[in-house]
Amino acid sequence: MVVGGRRNTVCFLATFLSLFLTSLLLTNVEVFGYPSTVMPPVSWTNDVPIGFSFWESVGVRPILVNGSFVCGFHCKFEGTPCLFAISIFPSSLDSNSSFSTQMVWSANRNKPIGLGAKLQFSQEGDLTLEDDHDTLVWSTNTTGKFVLGMKLTHQGNLILFDGNNKTVWQSFDHPTDCLVLGQRLVSGQKLKANMSSTDWTEGLYSFSINSSNGYFVASIGSNATLDYYQSYGSQRNKRSQFYAIFSDNNFGPFTFLRAGVSFIQLGSDGHLRSFSWVESEWKEVDDLFKDELNRCDYPLACGEYGICLAGGGCNCPEPDENNTAHFKMINSDHPDLGCSPNVPLSCKSSSHESLLEIKHVSRSASYLPNNSNITEIESCKQACLNNCSCKYAVFRSYGSSPVPSALCFFGSEALSFKREVDAYYNSSVFLKVQSSITVQSSPGHFPQRKKRSKVGVILAITLGATYIGFLISTVFLLQIKKDPKDVEEDYLGHISGTPTRFSYEQLKIATNNFSNKLGEGGFGCVFQGTLPCGTQIAVKCLDGFGPVRKSFIAEVETIGSIHHFNLVRLVGFCVEKSRMLLVYEYMCNGSLDQWIFCRDKALALGWQCRRKIILEIANGLAYLHGGCRQKIIHLDIKPQNILLDENFNAKVSDFGLSKLVGRDQSQIVTTMRGTPGYMAPEWLNSVITEKVDVYSFGIVVLEILCGRKNVDRSLPEEDGHLVSLFKRKVEDGQFLDLVDKYNEEMQSNAAEVVEMMKVAAWCLQGEYAKRPSMSIMVKFLEGKMDDENEYDFSNPPALAEVETYRHQMDAAAVTASPLIPSILSGPR
């Protein structure tokens, strides 16, 4: 009895002590050594936790704490990717409450880190986050701005301040998906929802204040191209910016019916909600859009291609007049997940596309801009068929309503639709659908051969018997040696960070027996496919040996373990004896050359799109040259190797010729490789640096701006080489003549286009040392550095001569290691 009594007493004391420490933690957090202000230099590492911690139980490793906010490393579970973030937690808890936090801001949501990552606050005043490979993940870019210290305020704002206690940088200026009490949203800032409740990366929904009229706008799309909510209620400050403050009672047009709202969050479903700490957990208090929007008004209420029914539920589009079903439900148990086309769309097979009309249906988002200026229904339909990026068209006619009397809208992203009930306009949706295509020849299916003559058969049998006898002897001799291909397969299996290895049978199923060909070239063919999880892929089948096999290994080794938004992601690979396949993310808009060299005005890229593409190519190359553990020189930058996704985001692809370089190496010696016309003059000496990519980038920029190929033999000889023509026009002051003359928008923005030509001139200098690094180029394109004299048109740089191209062609003919033209770009 005594022993049992003592044991109960010990348990009671342990429980009491635990509750006491919890109360102490939440009433005075600095007791546990977590300050609210720090001075540089100081650093923190995302280490494995040692012992039990209340913070660790909710996935937080604190750095700064103030009031109800904690700043530090946030992880869902031990061993999972983490974010440097700020969370809010209840300021006071009773003894029965569970400890819970809610993330309200993060720095690296699109680039999670793992154990070993380091946050550094340098003496120079910059706050940086690096992963465990010392690769820069995020930075405040405040070096040289006289930062004295860093603090977390009681409102949850992370601030870097100077000697006068003035704010140099603050997290409130860079919101993610939440606003906290006291925070303001200013025009130019944007809330971006998470991809899902379990995926922290940026999703499709955004919420902002329109800088031109002050309206609150909720949009969907990677470029916020489609609004589904609009409301007025902002104020204007002295700098003519529109803004709204999140106070106790309201936020812009939204009034809170219940006190104690702590934060507002834009959800992954597009709803804007307010939250409070209620009954020991964070609970939704109000859906702020509820007075304006119903279920079917949300763009993905029924998933992609789903039709939202007013009475509840979701359907897929009905079969056409021939009773052909073009869409199927992704999951019949969950209709809200949407529908998928039975045959995916393909720009390469546009002749097999048609439009499926759905009457009395409209887009879920009510605010449709007239992005085509077309007022005839047949013209609207035909324009959509002619536009590769158009997935559907909405046509609305207003009858006797005031002008405009009709609206034609093109949609490039598949969203939900809704049934119209008593609408004051007639609305029809035309979905672009793909017919099944019979492929004449694909792997495993060869066309029927013509009957051979008897003589031919006898001759074939005789030669075949002789050849088989020779093969048997050869194979017997080779059995004592291990096949070098087996060695390479073993090697690929042991590369660090190697992506998923597929079997040939898996890829055969994913591509429907390689039936949907996207393109072909010197190395083989590319086929479209879909993995069992629903991810669309492009499978590149390589044919050949020697250089082709080396290209395959280089690609897996180079990009298998690196990830950047502007690099095409290698999903996996397959190597089985002679079969070599690379599996990429699918890029539905193909390669850049199809768009910039196209004379079809309906497919022409506008100036803003081209400028964005130039910056994105630069970002991808800057990462290769300086953001990886090893420097990577691509060696084959050209428009065919720049791929575009559904939103025309540019991604660098095809790393078959790339070269890994140690960070301590300033130059490397290698055999000539690349594509003539895009190769820097120093290739003639075979001693190169990453500046060969800069030169190729300059050629691509020039082609984007001029809308023509660098080498065009269809033109007169004096105009056939773009670099030579560019040099001559600059010297004559006639560079306006170079602006793409087939594109009206490029012509109307000719002054800005000419300014961008400075970028090409800077990159095309004959001396590689005078060319900028790609990291400097990114800063210039982002407007973070001033112009430099060395690319001023009033004193043009010494551009590489066009003779370089001819020398490259001569060298390619005699070099011991043949020049490999990378004809077939990566995924399309």
TrEMBL record:
Apple domain segment(s): 347-434
Membrane protein topology class: Single-pass type I membrane protein
Catalytic activity: L-seryl-[protein] + ATP = O-phospho-L-seryl-[protein] + ADP + H(+); L-threonyl-[protein] + ATP = O-phospho-L-threonyl-[protein] + ADP + H(+)
Alphabetic keyword roster: ATP-binding, Disulfide bond, EGF-like domain, Glycoprotein, Kinase, Lectin, Membrane, Nucleotide-binding, Phosphoprotein, Receptor, Serine/threonine-protein kinase, Signal, Transferase, Transmembrane, Transmembrane helix
Residues spanning the membrane: 455-478
Tagged with keyword Nucleotidyltransferase: no
Binding site for ATP: 540
GO molecular function, a single term: protein serine/threonine kinase activity
Keyword match Transmembrane: yes
Family: Belongs to the protein kinase superfamily. Ser/Thr protein kinase family.
Protein name: Receptor-like serine/threonine-protein kinase
Species classification: Eukaryota, Viridiplantae, Streptophyta, Embryophyta, Tracheophyta
